Protein: Capsular polysaccharide type 8 biosynthesis protein cap8A
Organism: Planococcus massiliensis
Amino acid sequence: MIEEINLRTVYGIIKKRILMIISLVILAAVLAGAATIYLVTPIYQTSTQILINSEQSETMPITNTDIQTNLQLINTYSVIIKTPFILDQVIERLGLTVTAEELTNKITVNSASESQVIDISVRDANAAEGVRIANMIATVFQAEIEELMNVDNVNILSTATLSENPEPVEPNLVMNIAAAAAGGLVLGIGIAFLLAFLDTTVKSEEDVEELLGLPILGVVSPMNDSHKVRKIEQISLKEKEAFRA
């Protein structure tokens, strides 16, 4: 029955189904919150930093050329850190039960632009385990890079530490609830409009004109309760008079 939609029509449809829409929003938010808290495994992140520099004598200052050379090495070092050559040793020293490929998926290696610092981040469901892995990667890399590339230009700048109450980086409870509530709102509005389009009952003069293609000649006014009472009284009087006659 609804072929043209204007703002008044939209408002009317939403207002009519507002309780259903609000219920779907609340239900979606509650389910998302419960699933996030009880079903999704929290993931913790920790990181350690290493500094790439050059061996310099006491009389020779560091030049721009030295810095540029170190910056060019960072990309190479970032690749080496995530290779089985390094990670297999980390797994062996820590007694981990994962493969080098599985461990690689937990590691992120980044370096800021024009920076000689490499940040090694580890994500794990066990916060303490993540700290151990991050620090061991830095230790193994610092020890092995000297023999691998005949350089001694890696220093551990900061180590990963375990806080008293570590906060998980995943899942994001607030984000998940907000996304679910938005989805419930869209779903509720969509159902409201679907029900409105499927409703074929005639509710107004415009619906009659649209359905029959004929103009309205007259309208029967609704009878309120007072009119009904008077009609009943009139009928009762007529019945009494007829009985007396």
